[in-house]
Amino acid sequence: MSQFTPSDVTIITVSYNSSGILKQMLATVPVGCNVIIVDNASKDKDALRPLAAHHGAQLVELPENIGFGPACNAGAQAAKTEFIFFLNPDAQLKDGAIDALLAAVTRHPNGAAFSPKIMNANGSAFFKQRSVLLPKSQWLPKGWPTGEVQLPVLAGSAIFLRRADFTPFDPNIFMYHEDDDWSINHTKTTGPLIFVPDAKVLHDAGHSSGRSPQIANFKAYHLGRSRVYAMRKHGVPFAATRSILAAGLGLISPLVLLSKRKRAKAIGFWRGVTSAMSNQHPKLAKVGT
């Protein structure tokens, strides 16, 4: 048992045109738990505002899309409770998930952050067992670990921690690899990252902002930029060379000829990598325009 209750927790979720799928996540939030929705200048505000009001959620509206990590920082700054829980809008809490996380905090007073057991819609493991920022010696086997063990990195789709322990996400990372970067830094400065198998979360990955070719291109561009930046930041050897090779292989893959979305994704990744290598960041047209 824990001395804490869901009322001691604030769920922070970042929305970018995510009102449709956000309904499902909010429906799984336990009674008494606080919610902050950080909107990254979405076009669906007319749907998002009444949705937030219906669920008693605080809505933080940003004037522009500042990226996932910086939006999480804005949500953490607005939170007032003992604990904060970063949760993707395309995630759903299983019964007792927050209670299990609170109980784990009591068992691991030195734990700096906690990850629930995240599963895909088909029940398979959604688990970050490796990172391009870490040596292979620190990679974990596929699937969930057994028991409450320490992890090298956490998936940004669900991160639970004390608000007092929060260290900001790097504002230079718009999206992708911000969770790897944060996990490594947070472990060094604050303490271990703990896996909590009794806390279960369903993650319908990739549906929080749509799957159009335009969105695929937008996301892949920032993936390319973030990969080069984060690898260089953490001293990964041959960061630019490895990234440009991966981008080149993506462009010549036969799969890009068969799918407009895959083609847009490959082109976006190439543009992101090359812009990071030349330290350029051209202003992108807004998604959907």
TrEMBL record:
Coiled coil ranges: none
InterPro entries noted in UniProt: Glyco_trans_2-like, Nucleotide-diphossugar_trans
Gene for this chain: wbbL
Residues in Glycosyltransferase 2-like domain copies: 10-163
TM regions (residue ranges): 235-258
Keyword Transmembrane helix appears in the UniProt entry: yes
Protein's name according to its UniProt entry: N-acetylglucosaminyl-diphospho-decaprenol L-rhamnosyltransferase
Pfam families linked to this entry: Glycos_transf_2
A GO molecular function held by the record: decaprenyl-N-acetyl-alpha-D-glucosaminyl-pyrophosphate:dTDP-alpha-L-rhamnose rhamnosyltransferase activity
Organism taxonomic ancestry: Bacteria, Pseudomonadati, Pseudomonadota, Alphaproteobacteria, Rhodobacterales
Main enzyme class: transferase
Domain of life, per lineage: Bacteria
EC number: 2.4.1.289
Keywords carried by this UniProt record: Glycosyltransferase, Membrane, Transferase, Transmembrane, Transmembrane helix
